[in-house]
Amino acid sequence: xxxxxxxxxxxxxxxxxxxxxxxxxxxxxxxxxxxxxxxxxxxxxxxxxxxxxxxxxxxxxxxxxxxxxxxxxxxxxxxxxxxxxxxxxxxxxxxxxxxxxxxxxxxxxxxxxxxxxxxx
Amino acid sequence: xxxxxxxxxxxxxxxxxxxxxxxxxxxxxxxxxxxxxxxxxxxxxxxxxxxxxxxxxxxxxxxxxxxxxxxxxxxxxxxxxxxxxxxxxxxxxxxxxxxxxxxxxxxxxxxxxxxxxxxxxxxxxxxxxxxxxxxxxxxxxxxxxxxxxxxxxxxxxxxxxxxxxxxxxxxxxxxxxxxxxxxxxxxxxxxxxxxxxxxxxxxxxxxxxxxxxxxxxxxxxxxxxxxxxxxxxxxxxxxxxxxxxxxxxxxxxxxxxxxxxxxxxxxxxxxxxxxxxxxxxxxxxxxxxxxxxxxxxxxxxxxxxxxxxxxxxxxxxxxxxxxxxxxxxxxxxxxxxxxxxxxxxxxxxxxxxxx
Amino acid sequence: xxxxxxxxxxxxxxxxxxxxxxxxxxxxxxxxxxxxxxxxxxxxxxxxxxxxxxxxxxxxxxxxxxxxxxxxxxxxxxxxxxxxxxxxxxxxxxxxxxxxxxxxxxxxxxxxxxxxxxxxxxxxxxxxxxxxxxxxxxxxxxxxxxxxxxxxxxxxxxxxxxxxxxxxxxxxxxxxxxxxxxxxxxxxxxxxxxxxxxxxxxxxxxxxxxxxxxxxxxxxxxxxxxxxxxxxxxxxxxxxxxxxxxxxxxxxxxxxxxxxxxxxxxxxxxxxxxxxxxxxxxxxxxxxxxxxxxxxxxxxxxxxxxxxxxxxxxxxxxxxxxxxxxxxxxxxxxxxxxxxxxxxxxxxxxxxxxxxxxxxxxxxxxxxxxxxxxxxxxxxxxxxxxxxxxxxxxxxxxxxxxxxxxxxxxxxxxxxxxxxxxxxxxxxxxxxxxxxxxxxxxxxxxxxxxxxxxxxxxxxxxxxxxxxxxxxxxxxxxxxxxxxxxxxxxxxxxxxxxxxxxxxxxxxxxxxxxxxxxxxxxxxxxxxxxxxxxxxxxxxxxxxxxxxxxxx
Lengths: 120, 355, 552
Fold this sequence. Notes:
Largest interface: A-B, 70 and 81 residues
Strand content of chain B: under 5%
Strand order of the largest sheet of chain B: 1-2
Strand content of chain A: under 5%
CATH class of chain A: Mainly Alpha
Number of helices of chain A: 4
Number of strands of chain B: 2
Largest sheet of chain A: none
Largest sheet of chain B: 2 strands, antiparallel
Order of helices and strands of chain B: HHHHHHHEEHHHHHH
CATH topology of chain A: Methane Monooxygenase Hydroxylase, Chain G, domain 1
Low-confidence stretches of chain B: 1-6
Oligomer: heterotrimer
Number of domains of chain A: 1
Mean pLDDT of chain B: 82
Distance between the termini of chain B: 27 Å
Helix content of chain A: over 70%
Shape of chain B: globular
Number of strands of chain A: 0
Number of domains of chain B: 1
């Protein structure tokens, strides 16, 4: 039984990719192919040609949110097995995990106070 | 682990028949391919149906009728749209990063397709009941944002770029409360397998209240629903494709079938989030089974519950408006995360101490 | 409105400026000062600071070709008293030049550009004297009487290269963008995004080149003129009565008000009496149109913030008002109902019952909008405390309309300078406190309630009054005596004015539309600086811009 599990896991992604490729190939067969003009191929900016570089630098706010997210994501990864096994482990595991979460809540509070969670 | 049609005994029949003229391993693979195609058909049909339902529902909520002309009651509208999109010219603007631009719709559709793999449509109809089904769902659900970022970044367009960056920030921020809300249900069920979570909601209290987790975890349900709206980019969190601000966000430069793939994935995700909420909180496929076609009723109940939640999402879409980006982030980090942690404290206390 | 303390002002101005200023009092009661070009800025500064004319109401020019003069007309107002005065500066037609008034009145910026565009008057010292409506390479100045039109079209070139976006006024210097996108003057992170003419929420064809630092707006340059049709020049070739449909097409959402201001101006000029029933019908129609326009404003504000449903709900009510308009004159959006001397035809019998039905249902509908939109916490979060319009900024830019009242300044032409029959109606003028986007929205809802009151009272008066003539005595080919007249009304968008100059002929000699939105829009960059893109959309929706009026 376990072997069949992984077989589906291996086959299904290929099926999805095959399906999407098939759909796009079907579209390629069916669609109109008018000639390419420079105006049509230009980027859309409400009817006016775009100016300046498009690939501008990212702003630091995005990075800060990603950073806080990474911290919490790691916390969540640790909480997954704890959640599954909690019923069997009882009170002790509960108290341990609460302490763990509280430490991270302090981290959230610090980030909040320091203004890392403000979108500037 | 139960496989797709095992309840009907089709698995042995089909694999047995195929092994007649192909090697056994190929028969297994072909069976899986068939099952996968069945799920993809489900996704496509669902997307078609959901688009129609969305237009009708939103139309009626806005004092107008929605599609009426193509087919009886406008039922063929989405099919007509699909055909239209298929025959549209595929414009790839100059100066795009071709690799990212072309790959983005595939990634988004791939993530949408993958999460359907673990949805328990019925006691025996689940494409692959992974032991870590919930984790799988969450992981592939966030892959979609990667695709949106690729689409936004790859189109040589500032609107798309801003849309893509916003979508990543949004998805990433709402991951945390979403998983914390899911963990509440996981704790109550004691397993990450979707099938087990539904099985744990069997039975009734006092004879008429079903043992669904929504009654034990109302806060978790609300948090999950809101985060689900944010993950899929629905109003009130539809900043990435904020139509009145950024034209179409990451969608701006896409046309034809590539756009159709994004669109399909959006509606697939919409249903998947509702389906997940049904599984976790509304008891999945539990419901009264009648003697006529007993194998179909769990599926019907599952679909009915998921459709009801999808209707709620459409309702929210017609009624509420968009957040501003900083308000949205504040909502995620300053309100939802503390609330979901509170939920975990309470639920974990209940599970650890009382059970 | 008549100027107050005429004799005092006349004496003081003559004493102070002597020969350079000639002060006269024409028959409409508004003091007129004819000033020699070199003293203009001094006189304006004196009028602003010493005589409290703190608002530049209008700035335009008239081409008196027979006297070989182009006269620039400055209309000044004091909103509190209220008080109005006109300063005229005759310039030599072959080389019209005068100093700019932007140091005294910042609102003169776009107005002077417009006069330069139309007449070729050079305002020395203006920060950016370029054409505003027509394209840069346009040859000739069309509003001059000797202008010969010929076929010319704008060449195909990069709009960022031209004065379409007035970069010389400060930021947005694109010339020093280096190859990796960094700007030369020390802010490496900003980029320029174009909310261009084709955009779902720019309320028509309007372009804003926005300099963004991530999501925050650092600077904004508006570009208008996409809908410019030269209405003010076209009507110089039409008879006085033929001008009325053209007035419809300026602010096409409040057509009755546009007609109203024009016919009032011509009636003032020609001394035509309007029968009371016609006046009453005019007030009723104008207020109905105010409700209609504010409904659209509310719906569009909701739509721009993301609420798609209320937009369709207000269309439902607007359809009912459209039906009423259609009953009366056959047109829905562009009505052309008013005539010089009255209205086109009397109200049909089914009008009043239908109107009463709508009036009884409207409060329920407005409550519905309040439930779905005004009461929505997300909507309030999006609009409250967004944008801070102060009284000083409003005065500086000559803002009028609901935006002015949102700062707390009580100026509504219907109360301050009542025209038509408004002095006989009982209504209030809602005022805001904060000057934020929420006030822009909420004042419109409150004004709708007040307009409903006025329409109720109008229906009662109409029933009391009984049938009567709806058209005064107007000669078939109207030739008002030579002279000029200025009338201003409160349109849903602001203080709408119409300045007509007649030379005794069958066509208007000069027709000037004082567009409240054009003058209000000058404040957009300052109001939006520092807010986010989403706020810009919400604030711009608060202006309730209709391009037909801005560009004419």
